[in-house]
Amino acid sequence: MANKIGLFFGSSTGNTEAVSYQLQAEINSVDGWECDVHNIGASTPDLILKYNYLIFGIPTWNTGELQDDWDIFLPRIAEMDFKGKKIALFGLGDQNGYGYNFLDALGVLADEVLKQGADLYGMWKNDTYQYEESKAEIEDHFMGLGVDQEGQSEMTPQRIKGWVQQVIAEFSQA
């Protein structure tokens, strides 16, 4: 039986949704792993908690704001127990247009899942990005994969492939 990952995303323009399905295809190409994709706007805490492996995808809106579906769902995370859950995150942002808030929503979401006892995986080097500030940053890493479909879309497939390999390896060792 394959290890199942639940991937939950919020998307208003379709970019985060598209990246979610690219991640699913990459995960499903790895022997022994399967990925189910869910829109967070149509999800429940019970659905999320049935998975031991989770990926959450969130875009940053405007000057560091959460996407609408995540903004509504975020208070429900405070009621959830993520102890023993292995969680990886990815975020979308625009480092050129919003360099002072790049991937801030990713940082906000990471803080919330960590408060609920999650083990966070998939930290991603930030050396191929050009931005000023980010709430998702810890030293030389983001708290998950950073995707910029506005300024670096040509790098997205390579980043997805590398990040999925990293996350699967980290999930497998945990």
Architecture overview:
With 174 residues, the chain is of the alpha/beta class. The chain has one domain (3-173): Flavodoxin domain (Rossmann fold, 3-Layer(aba) Sandwich), CATH 3.40.50. Helix content is 34%, strand content 25%. The protein is built from 5 helices and 10 strands, in the order βαβαββαβαβββββα. It has helices spanning 15-28, 45-49, 68-77, 104-115, 156-173; strands at 3-9, 33-39, 53-61, 65-66, 86-92, 119-121, 124-125, 137-138, 141-142, 145-147. Strands 1, 2, 3, 4, 5, 6 and 10 form a 7-stranded mixed sheet that branches. Strands 7-9-8 form a 3-stranded antiparallel sheet, with no helix packed on it. Helix 1 (15-28) packs across helix 5 (156-173). The longest helix has 18 residues, at 156-173. It starts with a strand and ends with a helix.
Number of structurally distinct domains: 1
CATH class: Alpha Beta
**CATH architecture call:** 3-Layer(aba) Sandwich
Gross geometry: globular
Number of helices: 5
Mean pLDDT: 96
> How many strands, which pairing sense, and closed or not: the largest β-sheet?
7 strands, mixed
Q: How many individual β-strands?
A: 10
Unreliable segments of 5+ consecutive residues: none
* String of helices and strands: EHEHEEHEHEEEEEH
| CATH H-tier superfamily | Flavodoxin domain
The helix fraction, in percent, is 25-40%
